[in-house]
Amino acid sequence: MKHSKLILPIFCILLFSSCQSDPEISFESSSTEEFRPLYHFTPESGWMNDPNGLIYLDGEYHLFYQHYPDSTVWGPMHWGHAVSTDLVNWESLPIALYPDSLGYIFSGSAVFDTENTSGLGTAENPPMVAIFTYHNAEEANTTSETFQSQAIAFSLDKGRTWEKYEGNPVLPNPGIRDFRDPKVSQITNTDGSKSWVMTLAVLDQINFYSSPDLKNWTLLSEFGKKIGAHGGVWECPDLLPFKSPSGEDKWVLLVSINPGGPQNGSATQYFIGDFINGEFTPDDTMIRWLDYGPDNYAGVTWSNLPSDQNRTLFIGWMSNWLYANVVPTKAWRSAMTIPRELSLFDIDGTLLLKSAPAKEMEKLRFEEFKVSKETSSLPSEAVEITAGVTDNSFLITISNELGEKLIISKENGLVSIDRRNAGKSDFNRDFAAMHSAPMSWEAKDIRIFLDASSIELFVNDGELAMTSVLFPTSPWKTVGISENLKSLKIFNLKK
Ligand code: FRU
Questions:
Q1: 222-281 pLDDT, tens digit each
Q2: Which of helix, strand or coil describes residue 355?
Q3: Strand bridging mode 60-68 / 46-57
Q4: Domains of the chain (ranges plus CATH)?
Q5: Which of 150, 173, 180, 256 for a ligand 1 pocket mutation test, highest count of atoms within 8 Å of Cβ?
Q6: Among residues 267, 273, 271, 234, which one has the least CA distance to residue 250?
Q7: Span of the secretion signal (predicted)?
C-alpha cells in the first residue's frame, strides 16, 4: 500500500471534472434533521429494528418492520409498514399490526396464499398472510418458558388492513424461551406437490416445520446445535434456493446471531447445503458471514417476487444490539440497509454468498463526477463512490471540516472500515472501533454508499460487504484516495 502517495485533504478545494455543465459544486445538505439518512429507509418517528414480512405484490415491495411508535427505544413491538414501487422511494403507511392480549408482535414473514390454502381469503381474492411471533412480555417476566409462540394474520387489501386469525397461536410454545422469527416459504416437493415450510429460530438452533394450510404445523427437523457460530442466540432465519455458478441446486440458510458476530455483537451467518425431505444438510463446517461490518443484522429476503425478476432480494437492519438503543439520533432510531441482491459465487472451490446493491440503486445517481486528483470535495452527504482497484489494495479517507475521518482500506488481505475518529461515539464504549474482514482473493473494484450516518462497502460488487453506521458531527466534505484506485467516480444521489 502506497500510503505516501495519498494526499490527505486539508482545505476543501474543488477538484472535480464534472460530466455536468457546472464544475462549481457547492456542498448541499438536503436533510434537515441531524443524522437522518437521505436515501435509506427510516421510520418517520419512533423505534425500528428488524425488517419483517418482506413481500412483493402487484407492483409493490412491502417492508414491514419491528416498530415502537411511542418511543425511540425498544418496547412493545408493532409491525410498521412502508411500500415502494422501485425499492428506492418508500411511502410510510399506517401501522399494520398492534400488540394485543396475546403479546407484542415480534419478527416474522409474509406470504401470498395464491391458492387460498388457509381459507382466510377466497379463490378470487386470496389473502396475504403474515406469520409472526407473539411475545407475551408479562409472562416473560415470570419463570414461564412458554411466552413466545407463532401466530398468523391476514389482509385482503394488499397489506393495508389486517385481521388476526381467531385460532392463534398456530404453533404453541413447547417450553423453550427463545422460540421465534418464523420465515415461511412455499416449496415444491419432488412429487410436484407444494407445502409451506417454516424456518424458526429456537434458542441456538433452527427448526423446520411444514404445513398444508399455514394453520397446522408439523416439525420436520432440527439443525445447527453443533455447527456454525454459537456466541449468542440465533434469530431471524431464512431458507433460500439458489443455483451455484456451475448450475447445481443449492440451499442457503441465513441465521442472525446476537452476540457472537465477527465484530462485536450482532451479525448474520449463513450455511450452504441441501434441503431434502425437510432436512438441511450443510456442505461443510465453515463459518460464513453475510456482511463483515458491525451494522447489518436480522436481514431477510422478499417473498413472492415474480419469476422473471429471477433474483433474491435482501434488506437488513442497519444497527447492532450493542448500541441500537443509544445511538444519537433524536426523533427516530435506526435505518435499513440498501436493498441487496444475493447470489452464489465460487472462490477456489469454496461457495460463498455475494450481496450486491440492488440494480435499482443506480436510479439514485443524478450527477456523475469524474475525480482527477487525489483529493476531492464531496457534493453531498448522499453519494456513491466507485473505483477500480489496481494492485489488490486501496486507501480512502473521508473527512469533514472538524478533522473527523472515516478510513476504508484493503491491506495485507484485510478489508477495513475505521470509524475510531468518525464522529460521535461516547454513547457506547465499543462503538469507536476499526472493523476488519479477511479477503484472501483479489479486490478488483469497490462501490461505497455513503449517507448522512452510514457507509456500505461492496468489494467486487458484493463478494465482500461491510456495513457501518457513523455519526459525524459535521457532514463529510472531502475524499482522499490512494493512487492505485483507477477511474474513480462520485455520484451525487438523490431521490
Ligand atoms: C432480532 C430480534 C428478534 C425478535 C425481535 C424483537 O433483532 O431480537 O429475534 O423477534 O428482534 O424486536
A1: 999 999 999 999 999 999 999 999 999 999 999 999 999 999 999 999 999 999 999 999
A2: strand
A3: antiparallel
A4: 3-30+361-493 (2.60.120.560), 46-357 (2.115.10.20)
A5: 180
A6: 273
A7: 1-21
And the C-alpha cell for 214? 399455514
From CA 196, how far away is CA 186, in angstroms rounded?
4
Instruction: Please give the model's pTM, rounded to 2 decimal places.
Output: 0.94
Q: Which stretches does DSSP call E strand in 58-147?
A: 60-68, 78-84, 91-97, 104-112, 128-135
Q: Report the first-to-last Cα separation within the chain, whole angstroms.
A: 36
Give me ligand 1 centre to Cα 327, in Å.
18
Q: Which of 48, 50, 71, 131 to mutate for ligand 1's pocket (most ligand atoms within 8 Å of CB)?
A: 50
Q: What is the ipTM of this complex?
A: 0.99
What is the C-alpha to C-alpha distance for residues 133 and 151, in angstroms, rounded to an integer?
Answer: 6
CA of 363 to the centre of ligand 1 (A): 32
Closest to 325 measured CA to CA, from 66, 59, 37: 66
Residues serving a catalytic function are 50
- Do you know the residue count of the chain? 495
Cell numbers 447445481 correspond to what residue?
248
CB-based contacts of 441, cutoff 8 Å, min separation 6: 347, 348, 463
Residues with CB under 6 A from ligand 1: 49-50, 66, 77, 106-107, 133, 180-181, 235-236, 298
Amino acid type, 61: Y
Q: How far apart are CA 468 and CA 158, in angstroms?
A: 34
DSSP tag of 361: G
* pLDDT tens-digit series, residues 419-438: 999 999 999 999 999 999 99
Residue 194: alpha-carbon gap to chain centroid: 29
Helices (H), 111-172: 137-140
**Which amino acid residue places its CA nearest to atom 9 of ligand 1?**
235
